[in-house]
Amino acid sequence: MAPAPKGEVLERKWKSGRGYALRFHANGRRHYLTLGMRADGWTRRRAEDELQNVLADVRRGIWIAPDRRRDTGEAGEAQAAAQAHEPTFHEFASWWLAGRHGEISPRSVEHYEWALTYHLLPYFAHHRLPEIDIEAVDAYRRHKVNGADARRANGQRPLAAVTINKTIDVLQAILALAVEYGHIASNPAAGKRRRLKPLARRPVHLDSAQHIHALLEAAGHLDARPGAQTSGRRALIATLVLAGPRASEAASLLWRDVDLANGRLYIGRSKTAAGLREIPLLPLLRDELGAHKARCSSTGPDDPVFPSASGRARDKDNVRNRVVQPAVRRAGDLLAQRHAEPLPQGLTPHKLRHTFASVLVACGEDPASVMSQLGHADPKFTLRVYAHLMRRGPAERQQLRELVYGAPRIEPERDRRDGSISGRPARLT
């Protein structure tokens, strides 16, 4: 037995006044039907009665969708007038995005434009806002999942669950404003059920002193190649590993952000408020940046620390494609020649940022300090790194400390007997 048809009455606020509409399913399709305005005598009770009449016609199989081009009666005129005031998703989303300029960062604007241009508008552009309900959002999600074969045929990678969810997040943000403005009663893109469950990714940990040394050595080889147009790859890799900036943050560093005299690195152009931070320079990084500055021809306060061949600042794609990926390949060759354990697969600039967390934990930093230096607002990642590194042996953690400090680290330790402070080697456990 076929399920009984269902529908609901919607109360809308249009520019011409308040009115009522119906949303229901008929003949295998979703329908939105405007009834009329309060000024024309429509009330919720009348709208509820009309809904029951429509559903009864649907059950009997005699309901026919009205042709607005031919309906010239009072109801048809009211519906046409009301529908004319309901913006399409394209119109509303474009207006929404234009209003965000100046309120959010350029990176966020770029992200919203990407989600709209390549994903949401091709699917929802001509939908009126009331036509976007939970079923429509679920259909969009399935459409993106089912498009995997087409993307492979075009030489593209299928969209990851995280990527699809990011586009739904943007849809939710747009529809949240549509709810506030009275275009729709509730946000159909809200909630976990509208999202895909991301597959658990294999964690990538670069927390071996041998691997970090090989990566720095490989970057130095790239700098020393005959005909190399730029240098500074070794210093840039060292900064990613030993200070933990995001690739975009490292690319935009200026020499005014590097205080070698006082051993400080200032991250001032981050994507989040938590990302604005001051990072103490570990001894190895201080040495690497000092040597890099001595080789640079332009070290004014507003000169980029890691310029491209043209002298301008690199961008995050340049950091990934021209610095990190070649260094990872070269380090892999060096380790293979030495019959050493290979680098973990999947190293990216962001994974090198995670390496910094491992270094800090190995050096005895507490989770709160690690969070602060990474610019994280959520402690979950920091605690995962902490738990992982604690499974490493004491000797491995000691090797990391010796790499960045050059010798076993000496820390003040309170004497248990009288409370005095004495210099002792850092505890390894």
Mean pLDDT: 81
Helix content: 40-55%
Could you tell me the strand content as a percent range?
Answer: 5-15%
* Rg: 30 Å
Number of helices in the DSSP assignment: 16
Largest sheet: 3 strands, antiparallel
Count of DSSP strands: 8
Topology pattern, helix = H, strand = E? EEEHHHHHHHHHHEEEHHHHHHEE
User: Which secondary-structure class do the elements indicate?
Assistant: mainly alpha
**Overall 3D shape:** elongated
Q: What's the SSE blueprint?
A:
Blueprint: E1 7-14, E2 17-26, E3 29-37, H1 44-60, H2 74-84, H3 89-100, H4 106-124, H5 134-146, H6 148-153, H7 161-180, H8 209-223, H9 233-243, H10 247-251, E4 258-259, E5 264-267, E6 277-280, H11 283-295, H12 316-337, H13 349-362, H14 367-374, H15 379-390, H16 394-405, E7 410-414, E8 421-425
Antiparallel strand pairs: 1-2, 2-3, 4-5, 5-6, 7-8
Helix pairs in contact: 3-4, 4-7, 5-7, 8-9, 8-12, 9-11, 9-13, 13-14, 13-15, 14-15
